[in-house]
Amino acid sequence: MTTGTRTSPSDAPSRVARALNFLHRAWIAELRVYASIGRAIARRPAVPPGGTGVAYHQPVLTILIIFIVLSAVEIPILDLIVHPWPAVRIPILILGIWGLTWMIGLLCAMLMRPHAVAPDGIRIRSGLEIDVPIAWDDIASIAISKRVDEPKLPRITPTEQGAEYAERMQDETNIEIELERPVGIRLPGLLPKGGRHEITRIRLWADDPRAFLAAARPFLTATD
Q1: pTM for the whole structure
Q2: Count of CA atoms in the C-beta half-sphere (13 A) of 202
Q3: So what's the pLDDT on residue 10?
């Protein structure tokens, strides 16, 4: 049974591949910042028709808001300090506005891109990048199971039953999804952290795990 994707030194991505991948991810994240702000203005969360969105942002909401407020306060303060030097003032002002916009976009992404429990399956999401679809036919069971992991654990970890994918929030998960068979997923970036992995179990954080379970139950029953 597979226990995760391992990368030997000879298979490690080259510097050029890592640089190109970084630029690609940065470009996609930039586009999603503005798309998420647009969704927030239009009040259109990314939830498929007939689906239910389940939030995951509550543990980090206060931190994000504090960073946004501090960034907003920092812009006029720095502008006042460097006001006599236009060559310095303009770049700093542009960077400050861009940084504030990016933070607002990240917050909007977490609000407008929730986990989605829909007729075609579950979409596991986090921030600007993570969007992992799992079909109902591949899901054996879903249960509420809270767990706190050690800090900085990778998303993909080997277990005796196969590889486990965990989308944690502040190192915590409270939903466990057992899969019928090893399922291939793709994460942002390159191996070993990103790329394609085969997994047999998923753990994730939902602000309201009971709502997640209630939304999933009719679809699980229909596939029995």
Answers
A1: 0.90
A2: 27
A3: 53
For residue 222, what pLDDT band results from cuts at 50, 70 and 90? Answer: confident
* Residues in CB range of 125: below 8 A, 6 or more apart: 46, 56, 113, 114, 115, 116, 131, 132
Distance CA 118, CA 122 (A): 6
Radius of gyration of the chain (CA): 20
Asked whether the predicted pLDDT for residue 11 surpasses 90, the reply is no
Q: Which amino acid appears at position 13 of this protein?
A: P
SS3 (DSSP) at 47:
coil
CA distances from 102 to 35, 82, 190 (A): 11, 23, 24
> Under a CB-based contact definition with an 8 Å cutoff, are residues 130 and 188 in contact?
yes
C-alpha distances (whole Å) from 126 to each of 57, 63, 74, 110 are: 9, 16, 27, 7
- Output the CA angle 12-13-19, nearest 5 degrees: 150
Helix (H) or strand (E) holding 98: helix 86-112
Record the tokens describing residue 110, joined without a space: 């977490």
Query: With left for phi above 0 and alpha for psi between -120 and 50, is residue 48 left, alpha or beta?
Result: beta
Tell me the backbone φ, ψ of residue 5, rounded to 5 degrees.
-95, 120
**What are residue 144's phi and psi, to 5 degrees?**
-80, 120
Helix ranges (DSSP H) in 7-85:
15-42, 58-81
